[in-house]
Amino acid sequence: MDFLYNLNVQFYLAAYLIGGIPFGLILAKVFAGVNVKEAGSQSIGATNVLRVVKETNPSLAKKLGAATLALDALKGMAVLFAAQYAGLSESAQWFIAVLAVLGHCYSPYLWFEGGKGVATGMGVMAVMLPVETAIALVVWLIAAKTIRISSLSSMTGLLALVVASFVLHPQMFHAPVLVVAFILFYKHIPNFVRLVKGEEKRVV
């Protein structure tokens, strides 16, 4: 167990465990008395929190949705900022970023189920690739206002981030970016199926 005394390993564990905290589930249960794992898309993310809570309390739904979005993004960012302060290498920081997203998508507190990873993914990318993330957020915002389908808007923003990373940093080792993109894409496969069937709900 000596490896647990290694600083990098400690940060890797922290990234996964903190990334796995299901803030959406906690907030919805505490403040709205609903279990988002048993309603809507059964996701713990901000969109499902907004959709489920809105059925009984529209004004509270917006607050909880925004809080879920912020906390899901910040949990990955917090570990990365701490890692930078501790002087961890860039490669270690990228590993932390991937683990934070994995923690959210496959939470150890929910029997390795979780959310779609968009907010956490954008949070860690904002630290590692701030310009690309800003571009992705603009694309996501435009898509969200026009398409009004959360999953499709998110994937459009993700695509913009990946393309921007190759354009702005052609010499960078892109594997971590592609791994995060693959995780988010994989978690959205059920949404793509619903899109094809015409069953994916719009955000109203």
Which structural traits does this protein have?
204 residues, globular, mainly alpha, single chain, 10 helices
What does this structure look like?
With 204 residues, this protein is mainly α. It has one domain (2-197). 71% of the residues lie in helices and 0% in strands. The protein contains 10 helices and no strands. It has helices at residues 7-19, 23-32, 46-54, 58-85, 90-105, 118-128, 130-146, 150-168, 175-187, 189-197. The model has no long low-confidence stretch (mean pLDDT 90).
Distance between the termini: 51 Å
Total tally of structural domains: 1
Chain-averaged pLDDT: 90
Task: State the helix count.
Answer: 10
Sum up the overall morphology in one term: globular
In terms of DSSP E residues, the strand content is under 5%
Poorly predicted regions: none
Main β sheet profile: none
Assembly state (oligomeric)? single chain
Structural class: mainly alpha
H/E series: HHHHHHHHHH
Strand tally, please? 0
- Radius of gyration from the CA trace? 17 Å
Helix content: over 70%
